[in-house]
Amino acid sequence: MSEAQSAAFTSAVETLDSKLREREELLLCVDFDGTLSPVVEDPDSATMLPENRAALEALQSHPDVTVAVVSGRELSDVRSRVGLTGVTYAGNHGLELRTEGTTKVHPVAKERKSDVERLSAELRGTFEEVRGVHVEDKGQTLTVHHRRAADAHAERARRTVARLVGEFGGETLTVSGDEEIIEVRPSIDWDKGSIVSSLLHDRVSCLPVFVGDSRTDEAGFRAVERDGVGIRVGEPDDRATAATEFVSDPAETAALLEWFQRTGVDRLTGPPETTQANQAGPTGTSSPSPSSSDDRPDVADD
How many CB atoms lie within 10 A of CB 193? Predict the structure, then answer.
C-alpha cells in the first residue's frame, strides 16, 4: 500500500474499520472502468491494474467475503478483462449475472434484444464514416461513444439515437447518457442497485460495500446506503452523490482493496457455527424483484 493516501481514503478506512467489526460477512461490489481500471480514451484498451486483480483474487478466496464486479460492460467482456474465477460478475448494469457457474439474463432484456440488434445495425451504418463516434453493441444494450467526436458530430449522434429509438424501440427501449456516451437499454426497472440488493437478500449480518465512479454507480450507492458503505472513486466535488466516502482514483482503489485483504477482513466477527451464508442471485423465489415478478431474471444457457 502506498505510504501517502488522501484524507478521503483515511476517512473511508476508518468508517469501514468500525462497520466491519459489527458484521460476519462482507459483500464487496466494485465497478470496472474508472474503478479497477483507469478511464481511457478507447474503451477497448481498458486494463485492470495488476494490484487490483491481486487483491480481488485474495479477497474472493476468503470464506466470509463475496466479491462482485458490477459493470456496464457486456458480461463476457468484463469477465475476460478481470479474469478471476470464483468472482460474481454482473454485466450490462445487472441485466446479466454470472455466479456459481450459472449465467442468468433478465427475461425482459432477452425479449427486447432483437430491438437492440436492429437499432445497433442502423446506428453502425449511420456513423460508420463519422470520426470520433463509435457504436458498441453489448448484446442486451448498446453504447454510442462520442467523447472523441467534434461537438457537431456528438450532437448529431444524440439526435439520431433519440429518433431511431423512437422508430425501432418505441416504449421498449430507453435512452440515457452524459457528455461522453449515449446508452440504450430495455425499459426495465433494473439497474446496478437492483443486482446488489438481490445479492444481499437474506444476508442478515453482511456489510455491503459498493465502489464505483460514474453516475450509473449511484444506484449501487443507494442500494447499500442504509446498512453499508458507498465509496465513489474521484475527488469530492459539488456533484450530488449517494456515496458517503471517497477514494481518489483506481490506484487508491487498489490501496483500499489491499487494506480489506490485509486488515479489513480480520475485523469481521465470522459466522456462528449454525449460520450458513446464503448467496442469492437476481432469480428464483428467494430473490426480491425491483418492481414485479415479471421483471425477475431467469436462467439462460451459458
Answer: 25
HSE (side-chain half, CA atoms, 13 Å) at 152 = 2
Cell of 107: 427475461
CA distance 71 to 131: 27
Residue 59 CA to residue 227 CA, distance in Å, equals: 21
The one-character DSSP state at 72 is S
Cell (9 digits) for 43: 474503451
Q: At what angle do helices 113-127 and 151-168 cross, to 10 degrees?
A: 150
Cell readout for 40 is 481511457
Q: Which of 196, 194, 201 is nearest to 280 (CA)?
A: 201
d(CA 122, CA 248): 39
**Torsion angle of the four alpha carbons 8, 14, 19, 21, in this order, in degrees rounded to the nearest 10:** 150
What are the structural domains, with CATH classification, of the chain? 7-106+190-288 (3.40.50.1000), 109-186 (3.30.70.1020)
Q: In what order do the strands lie in the sheet with 173-177?
A: 134-137, 142-145, 181-186, 173-177
CA 27 to chain centre: 13
pLDDT tens-place string over residues 245-277: 999 999 999 999 999 999 999 999 876 654 444
Asked whether the whole model's pTM tops 0.70, one would answer yes
Beta strands, E only, 14-152: 25-30, 65-70, 88-91, 96-99, 102-105, 134-137, 142-145
Which residues are tagged catalytic?
31
Calpha distance 210→228 (Å, rounded): 8
Euclidean distance between CA atoms 14 and 55, whole angstroms: 19
